[in-house]
Design goal:
Rossmann fold, six-stranded parallel beta sheet, elongated, seven-stranded parallel beta sheet, alpha/beta, single chain, 13 strands
Length: 414
């Protein structure tokens, strides 16, 4: 059990989130002294994989541990098994659909669930289910909360209107300061309704001393890593904006053959882009330097095998989970100077920050990172671990989210 969570709901001692703006948190006095425990329903499209899904499950478990009643509604997926193991009820609905008729049917079904289960708060984590949740909350008076897990960009008025459902929450959670600014710049909302709650990683999973030598050997053999080469890791699905081409060009400029660069991520059907990368590697003479692997099920071990972890994203990241994970594992990182990376690293202390789409700058940062002595690398790793432990754990994310729920529970239903 996350011991720091229980007092916040049980005793009324709500922690102030130092990353949020707006009004102070409400007081959840007597939440477990109510006539019944509070019921919180989270809605999202699926439970397949991803940051929204991971956050949903972590918060649901924290709610149960704090004495509340968590419910989750989605179209389903392999992560439902985690809810089953925790004894948390999952309700299957076609919430991934953007069909207006399906959205209205889902709204009626959610309305019935809210009434039958006496739901106090509905927390929407994606746009299509948010429309259904908003309609159901209007009809029942349940509190409505949203989380922006991404900026949800738009190019026309219709898309902006569709996205705006996420800005209608009584409380609006942004998963980074970058997304927080996006909300205030693009939607007419009271800043006091918006909270920044960074995504959190599991410090028990991403801990250097938790990764055994057996796991390292297994992954090294699986990837056929040479013993005499230092590993450069770029995790992320194979899509152009993730910057794999920039890293390949940087490695060509770097000209070092004593490294092995791993592009770790699925192409998700983008076979044309994979072939383009393979051809770029061949033309750059990097056949023995750059390898492409598929999805990795042991990223903690992957980070431990690395000398440096790179994100070369050419578009802003809403949060950038892999860079936080890599720092938690004590690894130096290189990121681009856009999006949330400007808040999830300490430039010059835990990370090199370079302009996006700049192979020359990336090559220079790689050369500096690979030239670190072991003592220098260890010092960066220690700073990085302390930085993540202070700001980006799932315990902190859950505590801050439960504090938002407590604010609403102290207010009358709509």
């Amino acid at each position: 059990m996350d011991m720091e969570l229980e007092p916040h709901l049980n005793t009324g001692d709500v922690p102030r989130n130092p990353h949020r703006s707006g009004a102070e948190g409400g007081n959840p006095d007597g939440i477990l002294g109510r006539a019944r425990p509070p019921v919180v329903l989270q809605v999202l499209p699926t439970l397949v994989t991803g940051g929204a899904e991971r956050s949903c499950i972590d918060v649901a478990i924290a709610l149960a541990q704090a004495g509340a009643v968590p419910l989750v509604a989605s179209q389903g997926g392999p992560m439902v098994a985690e809810l089953d193991r925790a004894g948390i009820r999952h309700i299957t609905l076609p919430l991934a659909s953007k069909n207006p008729l399906v959205i209205r049917r889902n709204a009626r079904k959610l309305e019935a669930i809210i009434r039958e289960q006496r739901v106090d708060i509905v927390h929407a984590r994606s746009r299509a289910p948010a429309w259904s949740a908003w309609l159901a909350c209007r009809r029942t008076g349940a509190h409505y909360v949203t989380t922006f897990h991404a900026p949800y960009n738009y190019k026309n008025g219709l898309k902006r209107w569709y996205n705006s459902i996420m800005a209608r929450g009584e409380r609006i959670i942004a998963n980074s300061d970058y997304v927080h600014r996006h909300i205030l710049e693009n939607y007419e909302v009271d800043p006091a309704r918006v909270r920044t709650i960074h995504r959190g990683i599991d410090p028990a999973t991403f801990a250097p001393d938790r990764v055994s030598s057996v796991r390292l050997i297994q992954l090294s053999k699986q990837w056929r890593l040479p013993d005499d080469k230092r590993v450069i890791l770029l995790p992320g699905r194979l899509t152009r904006w993730k910057g794999q081409t920039v890293l390949i060009d940087a490695l060509a400029k770097l000209g070092r053959k004593d490294v092995c660069a791993l592009l770790v991520g699925s192409d998700q059907g983008r076979t044309g882009y994979r072939q383009e990368l393979e051809e770029r590697i061949r033309k750059a003479g990097l056949d023995g330097v750059v390898k492409m692997t598929d999805h990795c099920n042991d990223m903690a071990a992957a980070y431990r095998l690395s000398a440096v972890v790179v994100s070369a994203s050419q578009e802003p990241e809403a949060f950038g989970r892999v860079i936080v994970e890599a720092q938690a594992m004590g690894r130096p990182v290189i990121v681009t100077a856009i999006g949330a990376y400007q808040e999830t690293v300490i430039p010059g202390q835990t990370a090199w920050v370079v302009p996006p789409a700049d192979p020359d700058a990336l090559a220079q940062a790689l050369d500096e990172a690979l030239s670190l002595t072991q003592e220098q690398s260890d010092a960066i790793g220690a700073r990085a671990r302390a930085f993540v432990a202070d700001r980006y754990t799932k315990q902190r994310m859950c505590a801050d989210t439960l504090a938002v729920y407590a604010e609403l529970l102290a207010e009358p239903r709509r």
